[in-house]
Amino acid sequence: MNGVIRKAVFPAAGLGTRFLPATKAQPKEMLPLVDKPIIQYGVEEAVASGIDNIILVTGRGKNAIEDHFDVSVELESFLEARGKKDQLDEIRKISNLINFSYVRQGEPLGLGHAVLTTKTLVGDEPFAVILADDVIDAQPPAMRQMIDVFTELGGPVLAIERVARETVSSYGIIDAEEVRPGVYRIRDMVEKPPVHEAPSNLAIIGRYVLTPDIFPALETIGKDRAGEIQLTNGLRRLLKTREIYGCQIDGVRHDTGNKLGFLKAVVYFALRRPDLADQFREYLHTVDQNLGAPDSGSPARTAAKS
């Protein structure tokens, strides 16, 4: 099979209830990590991995995502008139990154359903799926690592990470044999198993390289008890007819889909910025003592005003 991956699907129709009230009027994918929205990190990863077409699966209230990646004539004119070249180049880079298309998921009926809505746009070719909540700092990019495995082995590839045994019930977990360091042939997978039933601690994370035969597999399984079409169940069906692989990503992953993970990601990427790192690190060193100072003249009060 052709190893060239030209399209990446970004499911972005979720309601983002974990971040209410911040997500009442804006998509969670647009929450900023320093000065870039979460979803832009995933799009930049796709571009750096050689992908040139993005398919966004959106829902009601997600117009801000489309606007973000569109050309803003008024803003560009404003920045150009004031000589703000760096900012102008940055926003032009956003709109020029890639070709975008959009499909509406009427109801959030599971990740498998989101993938299934892209069937016509994807067509008969392999494609990537990137869950923007998982922001991965890696070199080469996480998706590039997976595409390389796909090119080598010719089957669908799932990103995996070794997690703490006590957390396996929060993930899809694979049963697999190692083909070579960091690459596994998957025998089975189970969604959010109890700790004592988990076949391993190798968890599926938010990156997939899939082949078009996933679509009939998803159509065949139908909805689960919760009324959703689960991608994991579709992959288990596909596993009966072809080999599927796991690629252990060499990089740092942040799960920004929960508040603690989001805050950790903000700190991580701020400390990666040369223009912010020194001052921010100095501030972090003072946080504990500032929070513990009770009176109005304390360093904590001063820091809050700065």
Brief characterization of the structure:
The protein is α/β, with parallel strands linked by helices and 306 residues long. 36% of the residues lie in helices and 23% in strands.
With helices defined by DSSP (H or I, 4 residues minimum), what is the helix count? 12
Amount of beta strand: 15-25%
Rounded mean pLDDT score: 85
- What is the makeup of the main sheet? 5 strands, mixed, barrel
Overall geometry comes to globular
Poorly predicted residue ranges: 296-306
Separation of the first and last Cα atoms: 57 Å
Quick tags:
single chain, 306 residues, alpha/beta, five-stranded mixed barrel, two-stranded antiparallel sheet, 12 helices, 13 strands, globular
Please tell me about this protein's structure.
The protein has 306 residues and is an alpha/beta fold. The chain is 36% helix and 23% strand. It contains twelve helices and 13 strands. It has helices at 38-48, 63-68, 73-81, 85-96, 111-116, 119-122, 142-153, 214-221, 231-238, 259-271, 277-291, 299-305; strands at 7-11, 32-33, 36-37, 53-58, 99-104, 127-130, 134-137, 157-162, 172-180, 183-191, 202-210, 245-248, 252-255. The strands form three sheets. A five-stranded mixed β-barrel has the order 8-11-9-10-12. Helix 11 crosses helix 12 (299-305). The longest helix is centred in the last third of the chain and has 15 residues, at 277-291. The radius of gyration is 21 Å and the shape is globular. The model is unreliable at 296-306 (pLDDT under 50).
